[in-house]
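Listing S7. Sequence submitted for prediction.
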Amino acid sequence: MKLSNNHMTVPRTCTGYDSQFGLSRRRFLSQFGMGLGGIALADLMASSAGAKTTDAGVLGAQHFPAKAKRVIYLFMSGAPSQIDLFDYKPLLNEQHGVELPDSVRKGQRLTGMSGNQASLPLAGSPFKFKQHGQGGAWLSDLLPHTAKLADDICFVKSMFTEAINHGPGVTFMQTGSQFPGRPSIGAWMHYGLGAENENLPTFVVLKTKGKGGQPLGARMWGNGFLPSRFQGVLFRSATDPVLYLNNPNGIDTRSRRSMLDRLNELHQIQFEETGDAEIEARIAQYEMAFRMQASVPEVVEMTGESKEVMADYGPDVEKPGTFAANCLLARRLAERGVKFIQLYHPGWDHHGGLPVALPRQTKEIDQPAAALIKDLKRRGMLDDTLIIWGGEFGRTSYCQGKLTANSFGRDHHPRCFTVWMAGGGVKSGTSYGATDDYCYNIAENGVHIHDFHATLLHLLGIDHERLTYRFQGRRFRLTDVHGHVVKSIVA
């Protein structure tokens, strides 16, 4: 037998905790009369702000040299229109108002929102496109700041999915399954690679404040069937960034520490009686919360940032909870060892009024996203930080509802959409994959969500087929039983 960071295991070919064979380290030491209460407390009290953690994850080390150490995922919830942002299709402008050809649709499934329309008129983009950078990437005039950094970005224009509605679509992108209950990307990353800073969560979630749109439930950043300590921690734009983190009125730090010590003793008794690994997770979460009382206020405090940096992110950076403020906070979290930072920006579900609504959305995200790339690059962090931008699927090239001279909408379209990535070992200044002239089907180099996840893990030094977890008699992984690394976009 061998003792790993998290548990005792019988050697086997597949990585992952097996409940039939596993003994937690705490239970092992307790059975040998070594009680962990004093050991754990001494270790916790010896920790200091920014201290490195000994949690190396279930893998212990990457399967091969990693190109990225951390991920910042800018998720545009609601599905932005690739046709109006990245995928230039002059034929659509020429055939504006013409019926979508049956030879293009090929009888493919439509949503209930446009499937019963008597007509499916093509809708060209009202926005102007230009090529940018040495790679000649096409971007619309809605993204002027992003366009200036085209040579730092890899555009993947041939993403596709089976999900056609938002709930399954977002769940698929975030967990590798359309069905709730699977671990999210950040949870898998923490489980496999461990933590770098024991005073901050390894997986942090930020949502733009005050945005409507499709609901974003905690399952999107949940741990699924992994132990609960791997779930993401939601930071709010409020006096208390993390709920229940601060002490109640009348309780000081010394009293809080004493209470946790007594609670840990009770948990230890319960664990020795039941052997439930979730009790260990509960203890770890209480202790993390105690340490975060000092680390979180420091990381969310922006007063130390220079005027130049603040100006780069745009005027909204001064407003907590905006996408701009969250992008700057993401950089600060990345500097402090947070491995997976998930930003959600809702409001991209433009079934109608797209010519007016889409520019409002892009104005909120264009400058901050570009500033994040520049900021990381200036600090020497872009090379090992993978930035991802994209939604859950694309939008249709035909109009949902009535097509008028000044307004139209686009329905959900899973057959093709665009995401972009920067830093973290991807080939910069490139565009990968292509769609047909109607932006309806993939013409070359399709990238499925499982391929996307396999490539993401590859950039982190992980073989996606070897990071698994045994649950209900089966070894699960982020990519299910699919997925191929898209080596053409790896630098």
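Caption to Listing S7: primary sequence and predicted structure tokens for the chain studied. Residues 3 and 136 are 53 Å apart (CA to CA). The mean pLDDT is 88.
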